[in-house]
Every structure is written in C-alpha cells, then in structure tokens.
Amino acid sequence: MKMRLRQRAWTFFDFSHTHPMETKAKLKLLLDELNAGLIERDDAMKMALLALLAGENIVLIGPPGTGKSMLARRVRDCLAGDQDAQYFEYLLTKFSTPEEIFGPLSISELKKDRFKRNTQGYLPSVQVGFLDEIFKASSSILNALLTILNERKYHNGAETQNVPLQSLIAASNELPDGQGELSAFYDRFLIRIFVDYVSEENRIKLLESSFDDSDDLVSDDHKLTIEDIEHIRETARSVELPQIITEVLQDIWARYQEAFKEDRREVLSDRRLVKAVHLLKISAVANERREVDLSDVFLLKNCLWNDPENREKVQEIIFSSLRRFSSETLEGQLNSLQGRLNNLQRSVTLGSMIADKSMAWPFREQDSGALNRAQEDAVSRFLNQAQGDVLSQQLRDNIWI
C-alpha cells in the first residue's frame, strides 16, 4: 500500500552525537494532543502509543461505553498519511466470518483454481487495526490472526503475505477463562490495560466537557511516519541492558514463578520475556537514554499478569523487586561516592605530611577543611537529587509513567 510521506520533522536519539535531542519532547507534545478531552485515560493512551512504537499488540479490557474504540482511533490519528486507508476496525461476534476481517475471495483467482482473498482495505493491508470483542471470534479467525499478531504474516491461500500492521488494538468486556486456544491467542497481546468508567470524583469533568472527537487532534508536525517508527526500533537495538536490570528481571520472574507455581492461569512464556525486554528498550529510546533503567521495568505492571484476579499480586511482585534494587542502587552509589571522597581526603593528608613542599601533593594543609566541606556538600547534593530513592527520580523523568 502506497502512502504519501511528508518531510521528516522529527529528530531522533542518536548515540553517536551529544547535541540536545528532541524525541522525548516531541512525544510529550504528541501525548498531550492525543489526551485532549480525555478523562482518566492517560495511562491507556500512553500504553497504546508505546505499543505502536514497539510494534506490539495491546488489549483494552472494560465495560461498554468507556472509550476503547476512541483510543484506537486516536492512535490512528497520530500516523501521517491517508488515515482511512491505513486503519481497520470491526466488531466481532461468534457469527463473524473470515471474509469480514481478511477480505472476500477473489473471483478471478477462483477461476484459475486458486484460493486467494482480496485483502486491500481489510486487516492484512493496514498499519493500525482495532478489533472489538476479540475473544468472541471464531476459531478460523483466531487461527489466521495468530501469525498476523506475532510474525506480521498472513497466509493468503498458497501465498504468505507480509502485513504492514504496526499494532493491533483489541478490546473486550471479558478475558478468556482458561481455554487453551484462547490462552495462546491472548499471549500475543503483550500489553493489557483495564479501562473503566470515569470515577465519581471526576464525573463532573465529563459532564462539563464539550469535546468533539471529530476534531483534528494531532498537528502534522507531531505525526509519525513509518520511517519514524522504524528508526526508533532500529535505535532500540543499540540500547544496553545493564546488569542491575537483568538482575531485576530475573528476580521478578523467580518471584512470579514461586507465587503462582500452583496457578496454571499464570504462565510467563519465553516469547513474553523477549518482547518485554524489547518494550523496555523502546521506552528508553523515547526517553533519550542509552540504557534501560528501573522506571522502564515499572511498565511491566501492564504486561505480566494473565488473570485479572492476579493483577494486583503481580504488580506487588514488580514493585517490591524495584524497591529492593532501587535501595541497593542508592546505597551502592553512596558508598562509591564516599569511597572516592575518602581516597581524595587521604591523598590530601599524605600530601601535607611530605617534608619537601616543592614535591608535595598540590593541596595545602588548609585545603583539608575545605575538602571536608566539599565532601559533605557533594553527599548532600546527591541525596537531594535522589530524594531518598533512585526509583522515584527515574519515574518522574519517564514520559510513559
């Protein structure tokens, strides 16, 4: 599918340069526009955009009338080009047929004894898809969707067709309840978000809102091209995974397996681990960092649970692991800083003891008191910056939190 591309207006995080970067600021502006007029949908909107950047799928769970389809259309609006040609949405029922999702059979191909669908304008030809009531689909639709969700491939008769899909946004009032077929399909959705009715304290804002969703929300300068998205993903390949993050992930996986060793509903596949790491790297790129930090791991609260009843328990596993490693990181940094300052103090003391002042360390004896004060100031500044918690500082700086 051809799409007219505008001249690129984005400047991306480039590891080979040190000039000020614009990715984070641009994404902040884009999120502000996408969230215009929405109430209590900030987290869902952020995760939907992050899923688009990462090339992942997201499922929105919640009752009817909570704006799930509107969130999907706003993700569509952030893409440059012909939005109608690059977006597909459909409400599924148990009676829905593959023709409704993947396109009708080609009559001309049937005359040649070939089974092939005309997919143009249907899900296999678009960049963003929205399927409502996804888990009510028939097995024939679900089986065809499996390779689209994971490999971005569609088996169109005897041919395998590449699918330009960047993200599939699904919605449901309920989640699959242990069926093997649906469980495998559900695992293809890395991000799971609950979307509920607006709370009582914010209901007055909803009543006073005069927002019209037909408005053109996203300015052209803030829209993403496919080239933009591919550049972000390519940059993510160079993002480092520090040892502490590896240890945090291992700790979370071990705690998860221990907590749910007798609960067959909760299983973390190898695929989910690999995709989760990729999501963390995309988050780091969006925040203009060269490596993943603890705040990125915080996003896994929307990725690791399977059953809604276990959501809070999974989140507590993640939070407790982050708090533990955050505390150890702060303690280690303070010890390292204290050690360097102590070494410098000993050097000054040694220099003051050298008899030949011309050969002495280039600090005078009276510099010792000034150094002590500098030492105290450095520790104080460090503590003020961290505000008692490395994780808190990182969370404040992360645009997805």
Summarize the structure.
This protein has 401 residues and is of the alpha/beta class.
CATH class descriptor name of the largest domain: Alpha Beta
Q: Indicate the radius of gyration in whole angstroms.
A: 26 Å
Q: What is the count of DSSP helices, taking H or I runs of 4+ residues? A: 15
Number of domains: 2
Give the CA-CA distance, first to last residue.
Answer: 35 Å
CATH architecture identity of the largest domain: 3-Layer(aba) Sandwich
Q: What percent of residues adopt helix (DSSP H or I)?
A: 40-55%
Q: How would you describe the shape? A: globular
The side-by-side strand order for the widest beta sheet comes to 2-3-6-1-7
Overall pLDDT metric: 83
The low-confidence runs, each spanning 5 or more residues with pLDDT under 50, are 1-9, 15-21, 353-372
Provide the β-strand percentage band.
5-15%
Given helix and strand content, the structural type is alpha/beta
How would you explain this protein's 3D organization?
The protein is α/β, with parallel strands linked by helices. The chain has 15 helices and seven strands. It folds into two domains: 23-210 and 218-236, Rossmann fold, CATH 3.40.50; 239-401, no CATH class. Helices cover 47% and strands 8% of the residues. Strands 2-3-6-1-7 form a five-stranded parallel sheet, with helices on one face. Strand 4 and strand 5 (159-162) form a beta hairpin. Helix 2 crosses helix 11 (270-286), helix 9 (226-236) packs across helix 11 (270-286) and helix 13 (311-353) runs antiparallel to helix 14. It is globular, with a radius of gyration of 26 Å. The two termini are 35 Å apart.
